[in-house]
Design goal:
- The protein has 180 residues and is of the alpha+beta class.
- Helices cover 29% and strands 14% of the residues.
- The protein is built from four helices and four strands, in the order ααααββββ.
- The protein has helices at 9-27, 74-91, 98-106, 111-117, and strands spanning 135-137, 145-152, 155-162, 171-176.
- It has a four-stranded antiparallel β-sheet.
């Protein structure tokens, strides 16, 4: 024989029902808040689609964003080459104590790269010197970034450099070792 609910279980059930209802409502899909399209109109993107690191579009039909007023000149190229070489020279010092190595390298790095490379043990770096001049691979449509090839005694490293504006300093975002 089934027992009738006691006075203690009825308030608990009553209190639990609103919580269950709230949980179900919070899991329901949100309403579509996109503006309604009128017949015969199309929607255009408000900004160009950026390209991925491999220069392929991140979305179909994407194009590279314009340099937005930053044009390449010889001064920009010279500063990028100098930064790539100096950063690689500070990077390729496996005999330097870790803290000193990280502090010296940080002056050339973006904030993200500084954090990324802070855990690197310089003793694991195969290169110990730069052996030639850096050469740039310039994309004329992108005044904010460039890659440089920097030869070392362990092979040629690829150095990715970024800047936030025409007069902003070049900063290293990534140092990629030679492919074996």
């Amino acid at each position: 024989m089934k027992k009738p609910p006691t006075l203690l279980t009825v308030p608990l059930l009553t209190a639990a029902l609103p919580a269950v209802a709230l949980l179900c409502v919070s899991c329901a899909p949100a309403a579509d808040t996109a503006p309604a399209k009128s017949a015969g109109t199309t929607t255009a993107a408000s900004a160009p689609v950026s390209l991925s690191a491999g220069s392929g579009p991140q979305a179909p039909g994407g194009t590279a964003p314009a340099a937005t007023g930053i044009t390449w000149d010889q001064v920009s190229k010279d500063k990028a080459v100098e930064t790539a070489r100096n950063a690689m020279a500070d990077f390729a010092r496996p005999a330097v104590e870790e803290k000193q190595w990280a502090n010296d390298l940080a002056r050339w790095m973006t904030p993200q790269a500084t954090a990324d490379y802070s855990a690197v043990d310089p003793a694991n770096i195969p290169a110990d010197r730069v052996t030639g001049a850096a050469t740039l691979s310039v994309d004329d449509a992108n005044g904010y970034g460039v890659t440089a090839a920097v030869p070392t005694n362990a092979g040629t490293y690829t150095v990715q450099l970024l800047r936030t504006g025409k007069d902003a300093p070049w900063k290293v975002n990534r140092l990629t070792p030679p492919t074996p």
